[in-house]
Amino acid sequence: MKNILISGASMAGTTLAYWLREHGFTPTVVERATEVREGGYKVDIRGAALDVVERMGLLEKVRALRTDVRTGSVVDGEGRQVASMDGDSFGGRVHQDAELHRGDLARLLHEATDGVEYVFGDSIAAIDGTRVTFAGGLVRDFDLVIGADGLHSNTRALVFGPEERFVHDMGYNVSIFSVPNHLGLDREELTYVGPGRTALLYSTRQDTGAKAMFLWAAARKTGDRAEQQQALAEAYRGSGWEVPRLLEAMTGAPDFYFDSMSQVRMDTWHAGPVALVGDAAYCASPASGQGTSLALVGAYVLAAELKRAGGDHTIAFPAYEARMRSFVEANQALGTANIKRMVLSSRSQVRLSMLMLRLVGLLPGKDRIMAKVVAPIHRAATAIDLPACSP
């Protein structure tokens, strides 16, 4: 059967490798990093993505790795609790949705692809049809090439054009990094909201430390680590709560992450024998809470359509796109709507939001209110019919 190169050992890349092998293809994964990436922030697996994980026989292992965040609270500038609820409601999770660390899921998926060829510490330098030149100098021929290499996809740039054509800045930046758990949080998440900026601090079952996350309204920011940290510090200057102390930890954080909040929008995800999957094709942004689920479902559907078409990409790639397009659009719309609730634009909006949260916490029907709040997330997460997975 066909030899297929996958660029990126991402959630999408490793899941695709699993299903391609299950369907009789021979996948090879090339990954710029020297090993599977550990650590990272917490991610959600929802709706149809849970079905994908279950069909891989990994559902129980995923459940065993859940973060077990018990409560989520909003605090004011003095650290006083404004509202609190259980962790799943706070994170918009329903119907057995699972939250776990990105690194734990990456390791689990990689273990499930034992025997697949991985080429670590390398990347694609050029694509000529199906002849691939690697950055390390090796030249190899494949039948198909799939880009699963994230928001800033190298494969997309080589085949479809420059990033500026497809990556759309939503007007916000995001940063996350490890910090000492100086508040002694035990599987808790705290959120502080200021005008144009939000800060979160959380601890999970598997982590003795904590993670700090920052979301703020800003023009897209590039530059080296020092410039990024300066931009973050400037954005939160004068903030209350624990923000100054959290920012002190960023210079020594080994896992400092910074990027614009962006979505990828493309008219098509395939060109000749090359296709894209996951964030490379249709990043919905972290605000959607659906990036991991889109990656798992997209990889599953792409492999299934290749199997159904007997490896004929001229049939499989359009079928993959047709099945995924409305699902992607629903989840990208979720990201666009969510970010406006996550980062409030003015002091008056913050005050009104805090008041509403206090009132909801006092109402006897708050569970019904929260069910209505999370309903759009569940609808978007289940807005696709998965094809059969039989080999």
UniProtKB/TrEMBL annotation:
Single GO MF annotation: FAD binding
Chain coiled-coil ranges: none
All residue ranges annotated as the FAD-binding domain in the record: 4-307
Gene3D superfamilies according to UniProt: D-Amino Acid Oxidase, subunit A, domain 2, FAD/NAD(P)-binding domain
InterPro entries per the UniProt record, alphabetical: FAD-bd, FAD/NAD-bd_sf, FAD_aromatic-hydroxylase
Domain of life: Bacteria
PANTHER family, alphabetized: MONOOXYGENASE, OXIDOREDUCTASE-RELATED
Protein name per its UniProtKB record: FAD-dependent oxidoreductase
Source organism of the structure: Nonomuraea glycinis
